[in-house]
Amino acid sequence: MKQPHALNPSAIQQHAASLKARAIAALHADSSLSVRLARYNAAMAKARALEVVGGAQ
Predict the structure, then answer these.
(1) Residue 3 covered by a domain
(2) Which of 8, 41, 49, 51 is the most exposed place for a label (fewest CB within 10 A)?
(3) pLDDT tens per residue across span 2-57
C-alpha cells in the first residue's frame, strides 16, 4: 500500500525552498527582533533537516 504522505525528492526540495522563503519573510515581519529571529531559526532548521533527508543542494 502506498503511503499518501510520502514525499518524492522534488517535493522535499520544493518544501525546503518554501521554508527558506518563510524564514526570509519572518525577518521582515512586523514583530520584535527576538520573535523574528526565533521564527527564522525555526524555519531554517526545518529546511536544513529536509535538505539532509532529500539530498538538496
Answers:
(1) no
(2) 8
(3) 555 566 778 888 999 999 999 999 999 999 999 999 999 999 999 999 888 876 55
The answer to whether position 55 is within a domain reads no
Q: Is the dihedral of CA 38, 40, 44, 46 positive or negative?
A: positive
Rounded Cα distance between 30 and 47, Å, is 23
Q: Is there a contact between 36 and 29 (Cβ–Cβ < 8 Å)?
A: yes
Q: Of 57, 20, 13, whose CA–CA distance to 40 is shortest? A: 20
Structural domain includes residue 1: no
pTM, to two decimals = 0.75
Q: Which domain holds residue 17?
A: 9-50
Q: Please indicate, yes or no, if residue 28 is contained in any of the structural domains.
A: yes
Strand segments, DSSP code E, in the chain are none
